[in-house]
Amino acid sequence: AxxxxxxxxxxxxxxxxxxxxxxxxxxxxxxxxxxxxxxxxSGELVFLIRRNSFDEQNEISGRYSWNFQKSTSxxxxxxxxxxxxxxxxxxxxxxxxxxxxxxxxKGTRLHILP
Amino acid sequence: EAQVTQNPRYLITVTGKKLTVTCSQxxxxxxxxxxxxxxxxxxxxxxxxxxxxxxxxxxxPEGYKVSRKEKRNFPLILESPSPxxxxxxxxxxxxxxxxxxxxxxFGQGTRLTVV
Lengths: 114, 115
Prior knowledge:
The structure holds 2 protein chains of 2 kinds.
Chain A: E1 3-5, E2 10-14, E3 19-21, E4 24-26, E5 32-39, E6 46-52, E7 59-61, E8 64-69, E9 74-79, E10 88-96, E11 102-104, E12 108-113
Parallel strand pairs in A: 2-12
Antiparallel strand pairs in A: 1-4, 3-9, 5-6, 5-10, 7-8, 8-9, 10-11, 10-12
Chain B: E1 4-7, E2 10-13, E3 19-25, E4 31-38, E5 42-51, E6 54-57, E7 65-66, E8 76-78, E9 87-94, E10 104-106, E11 110-114
Parallel strand pairs in B: 2-11
Antiparallel strand pairs in B: 1-3, 3-8, 4-5, 4-9, 5-6, 7-8, 9-10, 9-11
């Protein structure tokens, strides 16, 4: 069975601190895709990144970076020098190559305190 | 602009009164789905559709119906809403084709309260 676990339900950090959101996934498939979505207080879901299972290269986009490690089935998300606007719920998700379903983790609520 | 449009954004209704939440996408996506989001439970899939006239149950389909008569539209129907269906609902579409790995595009959400 496929599963995505975000063990951190809620995190609070002070502005300018770095913060890492953990994501652990389970699948026996060899080809799959991993995603991160952001849900700001306004409620919409915003796509952040997609990774396929054959690309373990870490990615950096501004203050955001993602660390994909197949050996530990993890796809962690780090925000460097956090800002209040980063406050949101963040979802990690998994999609298999053999169907179109996307399986979401339960989300991590991130509070950035001024 | 590529988008998924849901209506209404907010809805308060009474138990048993049939309602429909509309969803429309302009990206010609084959795959569409409905999710509900509840505190502590994340996003759970209600129904999905691989293409016109093809729908299937997700993880929490009880109490819901869907239809896919046109590619762009995927309405969610609650024939007899109950308070436990109070939730935040999202419609999503995605470019299909097994192996596409495409991201899903989400509507802005519908906050439904059943009293």
